Every structure is written in C-alpha cells, then in structure tokens.
Amino acid sequence: MMSGSPAGAAASCAIFSLVETAKENGLEPFSYLHYIFQRVPRITSPAGWDELLPGNLTREQLAAALPSPLKHS
Predict the structure, then answer these.
(1) Cα separation, 52 vs 6, whole angstroms
(2) Main-chain phi, psi angles of 58, to 5 degrees
(3) Which of 2, 48, 49, 53 sits between 20 and 30 A of 40, alpha carbons compared?
C-alpha cells in the first residue's frame, strides 16, 4: 500500500532486507549502502554480486571506502 505498486514493494523489501542483514553482520547501514552503490555499476559476473553481500564484507572495508568527511572516528 505504501510502495505504490507491487514492483515498488519488491524493491523496498530488497533494500530493507539488505539493511537489516548488514546490521546483523555488524555493519553500519549507511556505510554498507554507500559501499555497494559505488560498486554495483562495475559488476561483470554473478560472483561480483556475492562479494557485496553483508556477510562477505567487514567494517574495515566499508570504512576505507568512505570519503573523508563521512568517516566515523
């Protein structure tokens, strides 16, 4: 109802699932989304998608990828 269409609901579900899975893996959601959105355009194989799943990343990888003004102390 809030998504406007079944496709919108499916997209919302996918994003919400990624955010919650990132939290469960000890990742900060903003950092995780920033990291994956920077890399998605360069994916060339199915394995590239697997590398972006929250369970395959560390906090250190995400922190290193953030621009300086956004880095957490």
Answers:
(1) 25
(2) -120, 160
(3) 2
Q: Write the single-letter amino acid at 24.
A: E
Task: Look up tokens 């102390």; give the residue.
Answer: 73
Count of CB atoms situated within 10 Å of the CB of 7? 9
H helix count then E strand count, the chain: 4, 0
**Distance (Å, whole) CA 71 – CA 73:** 7
- DSSP code per residue over 30-62: HHHHHHHHHHGGG--SHHHHHHTSGGG--HHHH
Tens place of pLDDT per residue across the chain (73 aa)? 567 888 888 889 999 999 999 999 999 999 999 999 999 999 999 999 999 999 999 999 998 888 776 555 5
